[in-house]
Amino acid sequence: MVNTYMSGNESQMTDTLTDLEDFPQKGHVAPRYMGTLADQKDMSALGRVQVLRRNFKFISIVGFGCTLICTWEVILTLLAAGLTDGGTAGLIWGFVGVSIGFTLVYASISEMASMAPTAGGQYHWVSEFAPRTGQKFLSYITGWLSAMGWQCAIVSIAYLAGTIIQGLIVLNHPEYDFQRWHGTMLVIAISTFSILFNTFLAKNLPFVEGLILIVHVIGLFAIIIPLWVLAPRNNAHAVFTTFHNGGGWRDATTATFVGLSTTITSMLGYDCSVHMSEEIKDASETLPRAMMSSVAVNGVLGFIMLVTLCFTLGEVDAVLESPTEFPFIQIFYNTTGSLAATNAMTAVLVVTLTASTITEVATASRQLWSFARDEGLPFSSFFAYAQLTVLAGYTRMEHPAELGDGIVGGDHFTLSHQHWLSVGSQCGYFADNHLAFVCIYYFDRLRASKASSGRTASASPLDTWSVWSGGQRGSTGFPVAGIRFRLLPLSTPVTRETMNWGVVMYVGVIGSASLYYWARGRHHFIPPVALVKREGTSSF
Questions:
Q1: Structure pTM?
Q2: What ranges in 392-441 are assigned the alpha helix state H?
Q3: 56-465+484-528: CATH homologous superfamily?
Q4: CB 395 within 8 A of CB 26
Q5: What H or E segment, with its residue span, contains residue 417?
Q6: 113 and 291 Cβ atoms separated by less than 8 Å
Q7: Are 81 and 160 a contacting pair, CB within 8 Å?
Q8: E strand or H helix that includes residue 484
Q9: Which residues contact 122 (CB under 8 A, 6 or more apart)?
Q10: Where do the structural domains in the chain lie, given as residue ranges?
Q11: For 236-272, how does the pLDDT look when each residue is reduced to its tens digit (9 = 90+)?
């Protein structure tokens, strides 16, 4: 039957839009930005009002996914972890396995995005797909985890861009006194730039994503061609068969699984495009095709970069001991013998990673706004209104949405970097990075629980609403083992400095969200399924 639960909340949403209309500079979305009839039908079925401009098309959303994830760039920046635990063979075969596994995950996510193309993404799907007895709570926890995961992702990518600049300073000026707080200031600068871009130039985001996609592809060849031409070659047999256990684990197999953090991170987060659903033209068809295209493009580019690196890196221990703290910078310099060439090649990464930070802010702001409009956060009315004014272009800079992201992300980085057990930014970064992973992909655990409960996706009436079929109905997605190894430290013996604090932070997020739910959230949170208007919906 048609779901009419809590229809009063629709009036609340209408009142919010009416309040926005009180301001003379505000208004409804222009007809040319309303999207197709299919988009309007989807919004009506989801119980939502179109308030954002649909100005993303296939190429721009492909660029959005490719440039946010930056697969080959991330492989370069996190090369040390994979070389330490796993070596060249572990990196290559690990990337193949991870890519296959994630492709299945994204095929499943693409199908759900086609069924319900909403900025809420995972927490909306849990609200519709999960067993009725746990719909509201599971959706609420998923919303918290997804929002926190994307906030952490902003910090992670900005950290990489900022500290790469610091690594170049070390290479060019050996007398430079390396200080962690210098990197912190660079991270703050990059984050601030990304926030300001999303505040004042949000209308230009589709164009910029297409432009950066070109830089992303051409930049790969600008780096690998010098390596192919100038670098000495490693032995093919050694590259594909030599595993390394530099972390002191029991055996090379365990080390290789721990080292998957590099390849997993490089393929993590292609669901970012989902949170742009309400800004994509013909979203139910364009979004899944664009998401899978992004996975395919970046998967191929990442594999090319990874194989190139493994054949041209030289002595593993030598590049791992680079004073720049980034082995790839040392590889570039060893290959070219030129500071200018190394600076130019590395600058490509700084540009693309900064662009990725801009895209991360865009994704995080949409996720935060969506969860706030469903009353899932403290001060939800502020976040929902403030973010809508910027995202919909209603005002100049009234409590901008991305300012909220800057406060959350900036404070989180400051705590993890300066105060998190006083162990330095490397530990804080890895904790933040691992927290982002488990938060964003917690949804797959919920989907696995749903499948095991007997309510498989193939039995759901939602199947009839999907324009896109990823062929993964009822699959459990990414293996639970991947999350388990993701929470292990990178080396033994484990000390305060080498401990992976991501598991502590993850438990803290779950605990805090659960307490807030029972104290306040359960009284105010509007489960998305309550607003859905279509036949066969499992109402709350």
A1: 0.82
A2: 401-414, 425-440
A3: Amino acid/polyamine transporter I (1.20.1740.10)
A4: yes
A5: none
A6: yes
A7: no
A8: helix 480-486
A9: 142, 143, 146, 271, 274, 443
A10: 56-465+484-528
A11: 999 999 999 988 888 899 889 888 889 988 998 898 9
